[in-house]
Amino acid sequence: MSEKKIKILAIESSCDETAAAVVEDGRTVCSNIIYSQIALHMEYGGVVPEIASRKHIEKINRVIRTALNEAETNLDEIDAIGVTYGPGLVGALLVGVAEAKAISYAKKIPLVGVHHIEGHICANYIENPTLKPPFLCLVVSGGHTHLVRVKDYGTYEILGRTRDDAAGEAFDKVARAIGLGYPGGPKIEKISQEGNPNAISFPRAKIADNPYDFSFSGLKSAVLNYLNGCRMKEIPVVTADVAASFQKAVTDVLISNAMKAIEEYKAEKFAIAGGVASNRILREGMQKACRERGVEFFYPSPVFCTDNAAMIGVAAYFDFKNGKRDGLDLNAVPNLRLGER
Ligand code: KG4
Ligand code: ZN
Fewer Cβ in 10 A, N or C end of the chain? Predict the structure, then answer.
């Protein structure tokens, strides 16, 4: 007789997406509902935490109901609730955590708190059934840039991280500076198609004491200085060239540090995750660099790169199987570190 499948209801509300999903046995996504608040935050040029929390409260019940309906299931069939409890915006996280605790209490369903970055990494398991730890993963999102050794399900070692801005944050800030608006990543990627990535030589920061750490604030300043210089000299700015050259500088550094880690740790498998991982130039660059080294390369579809609850359901499944359970004292932890319990 086949074993009963484990069904997880997952909730994600750490930033500006209100999301819920139903995931079976950690690999099958039965539903993945995302209410994106991007349009609401656009006029402010970035996420406004107060607005994000308020919208999460407004939308979360409907998003969860839709996730259950689309998966043709109900709370009586759910084995555990997975919820992002950090890192992220505290007010936004609290909405998801409070909701998950309320359902857990009312329906006596086990609760599993999930680290948001762990969720991003686990997004790779959804479409790659052969992917199993150990592997190396680069998580590049709006809030994080982490090079991680995935030693086992739920066991991580951070090899490198950003010293200042996250990669996605750099995309967003540069996009704003060149008048493209929020969110910057997809807009920079699009306009770059018409630009020359070698037009402007922007810096690629190297960190002396850790070859796996990143720094993007110098690159951002270099772009701003370049724009100011053009303005002072009354030289017209070719936005597509600035975007393409900036994108190339970011991806070059991400690829170079990742390949250093692959060589040092003799990794056979490498994955990318997070919003920036949907960037085509980054994917193609990583693919090529991995192929040259005989390393298998994995990446999630764009919908599983940016924030979603399916990835949280996958992470919750492996944690649940490892015996992790949280109580009703689970709290939002805005600066939660990966690997902390
Ligand atoms: O993972 P995510 O949805 O949220 C966080 O956990 O931060 O990532 C959002 C970030 C934003 O900074 C956005 O500009 C960036 O991912 N992003 C991209 C692309 N799509 C989203 N960056 C570069 N190229 C893209 N295509
Ligand atoms: Zn994220």
Answer: N
Low-confidence ranges of the chain (pLDDT < 50): 341
What range does the domain containing 117 cover?
7-122+305-321
Q: Are 287 and 297 in contact (CB under 8 A)?
A: yes
- Whole-prediction pTM: 0.95
Question: b vs e for 88-101, b when ≥16 Cβ sit within 10 Å of the residue's Cβ?
Answer: bbbbbbbbbbbbbb
216 CB less than 6 Å from ligand 1?
no
Tell me: the pLDDT tens digits for 269-317?
999 999 999 999 999 999 999 999 999 999 999 999 999 999 999 999 9
Unique residue bearing structure tokens 């490498």: 270
Closest ligand to the CA of 144? 1
- SS3 (DSSP) at 32: strand
Q: Which residues are placed with Cβ below 5 angstroms of ligand 2, an ion?
A: 141, 307
Separation CA 339–CA 341 (nearest Å): 6
CATH number at residue 12: 3.30.420.40
Q: Is the CB of 16 under 6 A from ligand 1?
A: no
Alpha-carbon distance of 297 to 278, in angstroms, equals 14
Ligand 1 atom closest to 167 (CA): 12
Closest CA to 100 of 5, 35, 13: 13
**Count of structural domains, the chain:** 2
